[in-house]
Design brief:
Length: about 500
Amino acid sequence: MIVVSNKKPSQFTGDILVYFVRQSEKKRAPVCSDKLVQERIDHAFELGDCLGKKEECLLIYPERVFDGVRAKRLLIVGLGKDELNRELFRRAGGVIALKALALKAEKLFLVVPEELSFPVGDMAECLSEGLILGSYQFKKYKKEEEDEKGIEIKRIGLYVNDASMVHARKGVKRGLAAGNAGVAVRDMANEPGNVWTPQAFADFGEKIAREGDLACRIIEKEEMQQLKMGGILGVSQGSALPPKLVVLEYRTGKNVPTLLLVGKGLTFDSGGISLKSGDGMGDMKYDMCGGAAVMAAMQVIAEEKPGRLDVVALVPAAENLPSSTALKPGDIIRQYGGKTVEVLNTDAEGRLILADALAYGVEHYKPDAVVDVATLTGAVIIGLGHHRTGLLANNDELAENVLAAGERAGEPLWRLPLAEEYKEQLKSKIADLKNIGGRAGGTITAATFLQEFVGNTPWAHLDIAGTAWNYTEKSYIPKGPSGIAARTLIELVRSWR
């Protein structure tokens, strides 16, 4: 729990009292708003132990008689000397969370540095996000040792002056919502493939619909057959588990634009008959991170109830497994809407299930804009590493809005081109399209394939294969699934114009 408080820091008697300091440009000690704390900083600075560098920490055990500090520990966190930004406070929150977990601290009190020329609401929001995301643990299937049981942060207070209470509370509320969305994505991704199945996606969709007053519909296999969704049906035909197409709708009841969100929900991807190598195949339980991001974003949208747009979410959920009934290289399928696809590689399956969902969503809901999120190509890792999500779009304004949302969320994207010449690589002699275009420009040709199913609707595609796990090391990003894209989608909706 994170709360905003005007209780004086000197009254806090919990585990860790936190102050923030900036690095001085003139080789002077960092400046703190508390004079007694400043004395300890000055002494540590003389010893070279507290320079105020970004994410640098100084832990002090106060002598209560002299220090006027009643907390058990005093933590000084550096903010560096570069220009202040939202990510700086998010990462500071992550540093504090990690330190608290290491010290088995349960109660924290942070003094928000209002003396800095940065909005208090943004500081409170991003500190909250960092604290929530940085304290993430997934121990559901792990037997804990006695000395590890119950290690969690139970209460965090953010101190601000009376005049800043409203802004800080609003910031904390937003930060908690976004942070918890990232946690939800990680939880879904960390579940093994025998637990997080297509049915689990359907169950979760129905749960958040009940709790958030959303409309939910699950399109089952029989209806997919009637709708001729050959992509989802083809990919899933090697699995004993039936596919699901989860549909969630948030409606304002007003005459406002509609945003369509589509997330790839491949709950396990073996590659099918085009079998992946055994090394790292266990990570393919993460191939549903796009669907998880869309689901988590819808949960926040249901809570915050934006008034400027309606939002519809589609998550095609399936398994891609090899069997005697599985899709074979060379097979031809018919996607929703009638286009035929020659499937030359069954491991290029994500675009097949997304194509059905995109075509269906565009035709049925007539959205003003579409954003899809998918762990789609290994090629995006070659191009961008694990530091940027690949963005491809047919509309400059939508692309700029998504880029800005990612920047605010601390989830940077990089736009790649889309052009007519890439379509040449997808031409088939016996069908309308091939599902692969060769090694060259693999991320772009995958997006070019999807573009065939959105028509002229403004559309943006986020390829998160490089950022959904093994993401850039940060204080609030653990090893394993990062929870990427949910917060970007939330920011996109919050800032919609």
